[in-house]
Amino acid sequence: MSALTNLFSDIDATAQEERFEQLVAQQGVLIERIVSTGQASPDGFWYDDPRDEWVVLLAGAAELEFETHRVRMKPGDHVQIRAHRRHRVAWTDPQAPTVWLAVYFGGQGASCVLP
């Protein structure tokens, strides 16, 4: 039997770097918890993942930037990002931790090896 864990436990609200925690990696699926504390993607940096990604914002606030527009996210908002759709994290709330759940699947790299 697996140990019970909580997505909101062990969150360091003063962390200087984003925290990525792999929760599940099997059969072409990777699920990870991401905790941001005011971080954003570096200027000029774009994610271009070979896998589809579904992301839900569980706590905090964030803004995703795509090449043509930005999307402001609040708890409960979710979006599917197709493989190779360039995107970046433009902003996360510096006042409270932003907790994401990201699910990567399909496409090249479906073996769940992080890029």
Automatic annotation (TrEMBL):
Pfam families: Cupin_2. The lineage of its organism: Bacteria, Pseudomonadati, Pseudomonadota, Betaproteobacteria, Burkholderiales. It comes from Paraburkholderia bannensis. This is Cupin 2 domain-containing protein. InterPro entries: Cupin_2 (IPR013096), RmlC-like_jellyroll (IPR014710), RmlC_Cupin_sf (IPR011051). Residues 49-104 form the Cupin type-2 domain.
